[in-house]
Amino acid sequence: MKNQVSGMVSSVRRVVRSGLVILVALLALTYLTSPAAAQTPTPSFQGLGQMPGTMSGGGTYVNAVSGDGSTLIGYTWVSGTATRPYRWTAAGGFEDLGTLGGEDCSNNRAYAVSFDGSVVVGTSCKPGGLVRAFRWTIGGGIQEIQMGEELSQETRGVSADGSIVVGKNIRWTAPGQTDVIPYLGGNNTA
Q: Which of 43-47, 94-98, 136-140 is least confident?
């Protein structure tokens, strides 16, 4: 009796294993032939080259990639002492985001981008060499935002929807409210 039960258990195990193998194979086949699997992109690398207008021997640098992967932002050297912020998309290529009207300086840079690439934040020089924070949008272009009282202002991050900008211990919320985020002690910055 004991041998019969043991034999039956072994038979059931083989059937269950075979059934599981068939089930896994069917699930894999269903996935591999589904439209979603056919649309999954293969990872690749694409060099962007230099942004047009970049000085010979200068560089074009990426500082961030949008959450959806559609947009790159950063800065490029346009002379030995000046940079320009840019936005890059596969459809449009490089886009010079401009400045806040000041002379070209090495602080014209884009630092962060919203999830869909529609909002870019960074720093730019104003007349007199003052470095100010900016927020660039597809519909509105580059605009100064107030990020505190310091002579040199910074932006280092932006929310996924582009409505909140942070830099050092300042949070800017559209359409223009600023809040000071208290330091925890030591040399803390956002």
A: 43-47
CA–CA dist 180, 149 (Å, integer): 11
Residue 28 backbone dihedrals phi, psi, to 5 degrees: -65, -45
Radius of gyration of the chain (CA): 27
C-beta of residue 98 within 8 angstroms of C-beta of residue 110: no
Report the alpha-carbon distance of residue 90 to residue 92 in Å, rounded: 6
CA dihedral 139, 83, 66, 147 (to 10 degrees): -70
What is the per-residue pLDDT across 50-82, written as a single tens digit (0 to 9) for each? Answer: 888 787 777 889 999 999 999 999 999 988 889
Neighbours of 153 (CB within 10 A): 22
Q: pLDDT per residue over 110-162, tens digit each? A: 999 999 999 999 999 988 888 899 999 999 999 999 887 765 678 889 999 99
Report residue 127 as tokens: 């007349």
Distance CA 52, CA 78 (A): 9
Question: Can you give the pTM of this predicted structure?
Answer: 0.72
Question: Residue 37: phi, psi to the nearest 5?
Answer: -70, -35
Token pair 């942004």 in the structure block, residue: 51
